[in-house]
Amino acid sequence: MQSFELTAPTSVDDAVAGAGTYLAGGTTLVDLMKLDVLTPRHVQDINALPLRGIDTADGLRLGALERMSDVARHPGVYPVISGALLQSASQQLRNMASIGGNLMQRSRCSYFRDVTTACNRRDPGSGCPARSGANRMHAVLGTSEACVATHPSDVAVALVALDGQITLASAAGTRMVALRDFYRLPGDTPHVENDLRPGELITEIVVPRLDWAVNSTYVKVRDRQSYEFALCSAAVALDVRDAHVVDARVAVGGVATVPWRLTAVETALRGAPVTEDAFQDAAALAADGAEPLSANGFKVALLRRTVVRALCELTQDEPTGSRG
């Protein structure tokens, strides 16, 4: 780790007025600094800023410095969000990691984290060895010739499914951005991962009120039960009435370069009967546009099965049928 200057602003105005990299829980930043992937000269410890609070009175509002574990166990938080948080990292890390920091965590691609190898995210124009190398964990959706790394956040998938927004503060004022629009596809500029402007700071996460999102879940498929990133995940919320789907929200992770909203699947579900056959028909659209690599072709079928599993979990008390 290289030397750096550390300051601790006590107000948002002071933080956005100064230059430097923001430090909250540090569960990603410190790791990458140890590896020399990130070498900031100035780090601002923002833990003294008044960016806490959980409000479930009308939708959900989260201060960006709220810890993942506190949000996960707070009454009134939508189950899909709690589930995504509880299946993230370890209990110890969840006790330290902030919600805002989790949304800003960097790629877990091994090539990105190894400064002795090429990586277009870390060193633009150097190449993407994952395309022909070790790519079992990598994306099949939203990829480009320049990058195939998956987005690492679980809770970002749940928030995208529920149309979550973030509030960004800067010296010029504040703005709100839909999280779905915040993350950028890699294209030919994979080092530009999001719409965060220089000096901006996430201050709040907002989820619009959606009463039927109490019927929601997060399914995460991974190589081991805990402390592991997703091979595939699905965040699903369903409005079910009279054994038919009235409305749906579906997003997936572990298979795409950004949290991936499945609008075609949502459309197919609306008006469909609550049956496994109907769920399979809708989930057949989940992998449209997928471009598997040499070692991750299994993710195409896994993606469809994960969506069906999540849908079945949410409707297990409803009458269902499946193809013989």
Automatic annotation (TrEMBL):
The keyword Magnesium appears for this protein: no
Highest taxon above the source species: Bacteria
Membrane-spanning segments: none
Keywords attached to this entry: Oxidoreductase
Keyword Ligase tagged: no
Molecular function in Gene Ontology: FAD binding; xanthine dehydrogenase activity
EC number: 1.17.1.4
Top-rank EC class of the record's enzyme: oxidoreductase
Domain FAD-binding PCMH-type: start-end pairs: 1-212
Designated name of the protein: Xanthine dehydrogenase
Organism: Pseudonocardia dioxanivorans (strain ATCC 55486 / DSM 44775 / JCM 13855 / CB1190)
